[in-house]
Amino acid sequence: MKILVTGGAGFLGSYLCKFLLEMGNEVICLDNFFTGNRDNIKPLLENPKFKVIPHDVINPFPVDLIGDVDQIYNLACPASPIHYQFDPIETIKANTQGVINVLEFAKLNGATVLQASTSEIYGDPLEHPQKESYKGNVNTLGPRACYDEGKRVAETLFMDYHRKYKLPIRMARIFNTYGPNMDKDDGRVVSNFITQSLKNKPLTIYGKGSQTRSFCYVDDLIKGLHKLMNSDYINPVNLGNPGEFTILDLAEKVIKLSNSESKIIYKNLPEDDPVRRKPDISLAKETLDWKPIINLEEGLKRTIDYFEKII
Ligand code: NAD
Ligand code: UDP
User: Are 197 and 222 in the same domain?
Assistant: First the structure.
């Protein structure tokens, strides 16, 4: 099969490209390298079935360069709050004009197209844990809105292309995912805490640390994305690890697992920071026969090993 991965040089994208190549597929990575890292995909370049096309999804697709494809995974969008808030207008464009370009290209090819959606579409959820039927609680005006609302309209566009053109679509609502290849400077909590811990610097907890997140190890997530793409399920599916931890729990685990002497300091909580987040993954279990198998402690150990090598 020939598969296009937009955002293929990023954290999740690079794993996905590797996974798809190992299965014998031909893979094209299309990326504007805003947050993508060439080192992530360097080992893949030796594979003749792998091709990289530098391109911004906001611009018309280089149709001739890409050629025909069977499947498209659309991951092109900065994912960490500091990166997606760096230029909110560009983030919205990636999720609107960029998504339309991806969908038009899928239509041209008759390709199945998967959207990397997010738990952020639930905003600061009033329902717990979050099921796919929950419609969300998002502030349209806040600093996270460029991402949250962008991803919401992307889902709308996917569904409208499906309704209007019968395009085969898939939508994965991805919950916080972590692992090796995360950008150490992306400001996300796992990368921040591990970097700080390994340098014996204070771990920066925003707010009181009582807010919760559910952390999924990258290998588990990639298997889920692949299963979803190769299912025939049209509606959104939560993919994440339902284990729920406070940010303070996470800080303490990271300090312990990295044998660090770091202390904890408290900083201001960013605006609209969700209080609780935990996926209900019953649908993924039933429709995809998928569930994560790597627990937080094991995943953190592997991630700490990686960061030890790059810091
Ligand atoms: P990442 O920032 O590491 O990767 C995003 C990739 O997209 C980068 O390679 C970047 O250069 C590229 N990109 C950004 N804008 C682009 C554009 N306009 N045109 C072409 N390429 C562009 O982030 P990630 O964690 O790998 O996330 C990948 C996808 O998964 C994103 O769409 C994100 O919203 C989604 N997601 C991730 C998580 C997570 O916890 N990692 C959770 C929910 C959803
Ligand atoms: N966070 C924190 N310290 C950090 C980075 C993040 O306490 O150095 C908190 C952040 O406020 C949020 C949680 O950790 O409550 C997860 O943040 P992240 O940016 O990783 O993901 P998101 O908020 O998008 O889930």
Answer: no
3-state class (DSSP) for residue 49: coil
Burial track 30-62 (b if 16+ CB lie within 10 A, e otherwise):
bbbebbbbeebbeebeeeeebbbeebbbbeebe
Mean pLDDT of the chain: 98
Does any ligand 1 atom lie closer than 6 A to the CB of residue 254? no
Q: Tell me whether residue 287 is in a domain.
A: yes
Q: Whose CA is nearest to atom 25 of ligand 2?
A: 176
Distance 186 CA to ligand 1 centre (A): 11
- Per the structure, the count of domains in the chain is 2
Q: Per the domain annotation, does 46 fall within a domain?
A: yes
In a domain, 184, yes or no: no
The domain of 161 spans: 2-178+216-241+279-292
CA angle 58, 62, 67 (to 5 degrees): 130
Q: What is the pLDDT of residue 140?
A: 98
Give me the pLDDT at residue 52, please: 98
Q: Which of 73, 84, 147, 178 is catalytic?
A: 147
**Residues 12-55 pLDDT 10s:** 999 999 999 999 999 999 999 999 999 999 999 999 999 999 99
160 shares its domain with 250 = no
Q: What is the pLDDT of residues 202-238, one digit of tens each?
A: 999 999 999 999 999 999 999 999 999 999 999 999 9
What residue ranges in 182-272 does DSSP mark as E strands? 203-206, 212-213, 216-217, 236-239, 245-246, 264-267
| Ligand lying nearest the CA atom of residue 174 | 1
